[in-house]
Specification:
The structure is a single chain. By secondary structure, this protein is of the alpha/beta class. The chain has one domain (2-224): Rossmann fold (3-Layer(aba) Sandwich), CATH 3.40.50. Helix content is 36%, strand content 31%. A 5-stranded mixed β-barrel has the order 5-9-8-6-10, surrounded by 5 helices. The chain is globular, with a radius of gyration of 16 Å. The structure holds the ligand Nc1ncnc2c(CN3C[C@H](CSc4cnccn4)[C@@H](O)C3)c[nH]c12. The ligand Nc1ncnc2c(CN3C[C@H](CSc4cnccn4)[C@@H](O)C3)c[nH]c12 is lined by residues 7-8, 49, 75-77, 150-151, 169-171, 194-195, 197, 201, 205.
């Protein structure tokens, strides 16, 4: 079983449009969609926004639906300058920029007995780069940072860039990376840029959420043909 996860309904809907749903399972106040594509058994869900919701859905996808790989598709705010709205980025690793136990001498993003960074699956990233090459699509790769805040401040964005070396920002990948790392499930995260995470980002986000979600969804479907 392969899990496909998003955070928002708007990020999942364009993926479901490509699929013929077999069944919908209601569980833990959420919906999980079962489908077959290219001879793959898929389970899909949007978690709702934020790290806690994302962790819950990721754990359910693995524990209840027996997902052996977890692919995330959605949108993100750009940190790296050359990432423009609509551009695609895959995560090499994810982290949580809003974890702060520095008063105890720990580095930003670190929780005792855990990690700052959670590595994404190299094989799935390799497939993504192969697909991008075949389709002639620009695909960036980099660290993607998560926190339970919509970032719309140049100062905060630059702090995250300096502290974590992040190329993009969102609100779920660090939690999903943590769950997949602890469950030893390969994790892949693809995001299309919806805004620049600076002042005014909320306006851009509202304008480009649907279009950027489609960009990510379309690429993810192309990837499923190669898995
Ligand atoms: N600049 C940014 N900072 C942090 N995260 C992001 C994202 C990625 N997603 C979109 C969505 C924003 S919150 C939301 C969205 N709509 C309504 C309510 N909340 C949340 O799931 C994280 C895109 N741009 C971001």
């Amino acid at each position: 079983m392969i899990a496909i996860m998003c955070a928002m309904r708007e990020e999942l809907e364009p993926i479901l449009e490509y699929l013929k749903l077999k069944e919908t399972v209601e569980y833990a106040n959420n919906k999980y969609y079962l489908a077959k594509f290219n001879n793959l058994d898929l389970v899909l869900a949007y978690s709702k926004i934020g790290k806690v919701n994302a962790a819950l859905s990721a754990a359910i996808l693995i524990e209840k639906f027996n997902a052996k790989k977890l692919l995330f598709s959605g949108v993100a705010g750009a940190i790296e300058r050359d990432l423009k709205i609509g551009d695609l980025i895959i995560a090499t690793k994810t982290c949580q920029h809003d974890i702060d136990l520095t008063v105890f001498g720990y580095e930003p993003g670190f929780i005792p007995e855990s990690k700052v960074f959670f590595e994404c699956d190299e094989n799935l990233n390799h497939i993504a780069k192969k697909v991008a090459g075949k389709l002639g699509i620009k695909l960036k790769e980099g660290i993607i940072a998560s926190g339970d805040q919509f970032i719309h401040s140049k100062e905060k964005k630059e702090w995250i860039a300096k502290t974590f070396g992040a190329s993009a920002i969102e609100m779920e990948g660090g939690a999903v990376g943590c769950v997949c790392d602890n469950e030893s499930v390969p994790f892949f995260m693809l995001r299309a840029i919806s805004d620049a995470a600076e002042e005014g980002a909320g306006i851009d986000f509202d304008e480009f959420l649907e279009e950027s979600s489609r960009v990510s969804a379309k690429f993810l479907i192309e990837m499923l043909k190669e898995i």
